[in-house]
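#struct-pred

JT: dropping the chains for the assembly here, can someone run the whole complex?
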Amino acid sequence: MVNRSLPSFLCGISLTLCTLSLSGFVFAEEKGSLPIMPAPAHVVVGEGEFFIDGSFGVATKGYDEPRLARARRRFLDILSKETGIPFKHGAIASQAHFIIQTIGPSAAVQQLDEDESYNLVISTNDVALKAANPLGVLRGLQTFLQLVRINERGFSVPVVTVDDAPRFPWRGLLIDSGHRFVPTPVVKRNLDGMEAVKLNVFHWRFADDEGFHIESKKFPLLQEKASGGLYYSQEEVREIVGYARDRGIRVVPEFDMPCHTKSWFQGYPELAGGKNPRQSSAMDPTRESTYKFLSGFIREMAALFPDSYLHTGGDECDAKEWETNPQIQDYMRKNSIKDGAALQGRFTARIEKIVASHKKIMEGWDEVLQANTPKDVVIQSWRGPSSLAEAARNGYRSVLSSGYYIDLNQSAKEHYLVDPLGEGAAALTPEQKKFVLGAEATMWTDIVSADNMDNRIWPRTAAIAERLWSPEQIKDIGWMYQRLAIVSQKLGYYGLRHRLITEEMLERMSGDPDPVALRVLADVVQPPKGYQRQELRTDFTALNHLDDAVPPESDTAREFNAIAQRISSGTATPQDWQQARAWLVLWRDNDAKLQSLLKRSYLIQDLAPVSTNLRRVAEIGLQALDDLHENRVVSAELRDTNITFLKSAVEPHAVLLLMPASSVELLVNATKTQ
Amino acid sequence: MVNRSLPSFLCGISLTLCTLSLSGFVFAEEKGSLPIMPAPAHVVVGEGEFFIDGSFGVATKGYDEPRLARARRRFLDILSKETGIPFKHGAIASQAHFIIQTIGPSAAVQQLDEDESYNLVISTNDVALKAANPLGVLRGLQTFLQLVRINERGFSVPVVTVDDAPRFPWRGLLIDSGHRFVPTPVVKRNLDGMEAVKLNVFHWRFADDEGFHIESKKFPLLQEKASGGLYYSQEEVREIVGYARDRGIRVVPEFDMPCHTKSWFQGYPELAGGKNPRQSSAMDPTRESTYKFLSGFIREMAALFPDSYLHTGGDECDAKEWETNPQIQDYMRKNSIKDGAALQGRFTARIEKIVASHKKIMEGWDEVLQANTPKDVVIQSWRGPSSLAEAARNGYRSVLSSGYYIDLNQSAKEHYLVDPLGEGAAALTPEQKKFVLGAEATMWTDIVSADNMDNRIWPRTAAIAERLWSPEQIKDIGWMYQRLAIVSQKLGYYGLRHRLITEEMLERMSGDPDPVALRVLADVVQPPKGYQRQELRTDFTALNHLDDAVPPESDTAREFNAIAQRISSGTATPQDWQQARAWLVLWRDNDAKLQSLLKRSYLIQDLAPVSTNLRRVAEIGLQALDDLHENRVVSAELRDTNITFLKSAVEPHAVLLLMPASSVELLVNATKTQ
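RK: done, full complex below.
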């Protein structure tokens, strides 16, 4: 009675929504702007298309290796998922329509500056992909997959020539398995997503105050006492590292020290710098035994991770712990160390030597940069572009993360417009700019878990990936959002769950297999940006509230806002008016349907005022539309009352922002008053 | 522009749909009919409820084993998925609210007649689950999970006492990895689903004419020449067998012989009974070398699969191959074998001896039953209840599959009303009835693949599972559908994809990330039942058409039909009228929206007339509603024209049945004529 395999929430107003969708698609094709994301360096679009049917096969010329064979199989599997056509593996070159030509191998361990360029030529009869090494092949295969579409004659790709290479060599995603454990299937599918958008560094963080989630054979109490049984075995780590290599992705492990290390002390309290070891979160940098331990630990991890870089964290040390420890104070006095930062500087220098002794290059957060830091240390900037520019000016290579904190619920546009060579770095000399290696999106798990992680990472990270791969001047926001939507759908074929999570969580929190009215509300709210969410909610143990469920960015609200802007500026089309009215009617009428559902579940009870606010926002919006349409003069008093309400409605309620309120404010502001 | 994480197809008419859904839920609770499926043998519902919060833990008393520890972990993982609450593993008994008490172990290899009973007592303060062995514990844990719901105070289960045990000891699901390979993740998640509905036999079929998909180390050309590289390694098989055992599921392997064996001959043509070995599909049962080969093969497989039963197929032998082989004809004459059936009888007797020599009991399809078949052979009936009754009357144990062919797109109701002890078997004596062990749902993959398999198996197989577990007299169809909907949703927490597949395939075939109008059509069409689909479509290589995508049973069409019946019989409520009109308006207006989308994709172009038919059906339905409402007299001529059209519309077009047509016919027939 209650479930249906197909959604039952089918609608009377869908014509306009549907038309909008279609026009988006057609537009992309008409402009000749192919839905490749990241956009390639050079594209020439030709006439005609290459069709993909059951006879399609891939063969190889020149250099080959098992990794390339696996890449071809993966390519065909994704293509099968997208088309529903089973393809034969292992075609022979004389029969295949798609020939891959690889000149030679890439490095045994993927290096920072390896060639990732490729040349893809699609004609109506065949496809040729050429690259210097397997990395370029991997990138080119993804470009091909993004070009696949269905039309009235079959599945096809357009005739096109692509010459492509990345702008930055370091294009990363950090997944924080420290705050919360992230199961390996979740890691793997996000590596698949990274491959799809040509990211090449997986920055994997294993420990934080909250937990230690990787197996140390040398110091097993690390995981035994601080993982709750949830940790990566070394065998699993090796499997993930191999999985990443198959996808042209380096794995840079991070072991944050000397702070954020409470979890280390559960098994090894002697490392702690505070008085109560198990409550301490900073290591004791004054004892030789600390360095002996870390030397052994880093040796073990340096052997486990083949990458040339090893990240030792170094962020956010609170000197207070050291200042309240008499022994440490004593040490500092004796050695004339003036403050916590200087003490950390000494620690960093020691750690750097240990890392270097294993032929690894140290990477660290902003704070590791000191006057005497060795020049090959890579600085990851979380504080902002000025610290990145500062590092480059001082001859340090750096990676930007400030501006790419995808846990903070910013829009794709906001991330997209951040450029590693923008702001402070824009003033760098060309030589200095070369020190800026790239950037990393950071998926912190303070208040995100493996359950909803996909919906925080995707699709927005594809926009960041474009910033790091594509030419600097590509920054048209509308075009970005068009392609982001297509990439988002395609990522589903890679197994990413970002498009499924919200619906699953809405069902869960409502207990209703088809929570129609809750969906309407969820479609136009967003979690607060930045750290405001943490201020509004205290308990993030169970991530099962609406602010956990909805995507960081409401597409509907963004589209409604664009329409409201056109209406208020007098540039709207009749279709805009129709669409705006349809949405506002939907929102106005939703409250009456939703309230009874909200009463039934403790997880959504607090949404009652948000739903009522949406109704009121919509009522004001509909009135404003009428006033604008009829060119009516409105009472200034009423308008002020409405604007006061709209401004209050856009503030967080139940840890959610009601996005249409500010768009309706645009409409109200556009009406005429006495 | 085009994608949104939340569905945008939100509607003006959703109030009625939504209200319908809610009323279904409330009804189930009010009746005191708990959403357990299969319904337990005995239930006593009490007052109050037990709440599940972050402090919830499970502990164990009495016998324990690693399998039970894994079961507890799995239980908590599913509960976390359903609630979003992370639970701590490994609670201690003094603190846990849920105590499991197991008396002793079950058999080292799960046996046919093992005790699966359990006793589950839920009070407002705690939960106690008791069972004789781990199998009963597994069953009881699933009952608990089905009771979990959300309400205004939290997640909870009702106070209840359940005493439960199955009606039949053999409750199976066949997955056919012969026609098409089924990847291990798909097998695993379907084993999870089997556990959820208390099925206990996984009948795993590995080969058919189309392919041979399991590794033989003794005869490696079997998989090397006939699997296209897609086969289960023996290590994978062992992993699946262990995975099944963890879930209280036996694995009965099937190696169908002597027919449906074309794939065997690709590597070993000497086994073939036809003139052209590689085109032959029957073994040569006259050569000693055949038996020598099979003896070696069965030895290898008997060692790989621990279950006491081994299925050797035996179905659908076409004697023509043997009749056109002079050597075989010669042999038959010399040995006075009158026909192919007799020749197969000899073959079966030989194979039975080989199977028995490995201390296994042979199982076979109907055809293996001959006059001299040993009495311990188990007969699986695919021909129908009469062959099952016949076997039982002759003292053979049997398993019913006729009536449970879930590849044939029948409704849950149709399967549900089939009883292994119904029809022919109803006349058996109580002693004879004991020979009927149970039944198996059969997921044949002739025209189903791993991609859409979940949506063919679930949720309908839960209804079959109830028939096999629950008391015979439980057969209320309405109640079954209510619970089926809830189980269907819960199966999502086990990772089953049946509720996702249709939407994914609609996106794929339309190239639209939000194909609103296509969804409306898809929601009310069904693939033809039985073998008609194979007659209408010739190429099932790529399963990417709408008849592959939609579920076998349209819930919307069934609900609409129930309303149409009430309207035509004069028992409809005002809400029924409102709902019928809302649906008919939706369908009428959909065609104008859908046609342009259909033109854009080759996979859906042929749906144009189906969409137009839906519009016309809806127009006739709306007219009939008006006529009935106004009590109008209708022209007999017009009515006949309409009925002629409706009868034609219900016939397959584009390999699809337009389900509402027959319901509208009910409405038209209820109108008054001159």
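JT: nice. The first strand of chain A starts at residue 42 and ends at 52. Chain A touches chain B through 99 residues (CB under 8 Å).
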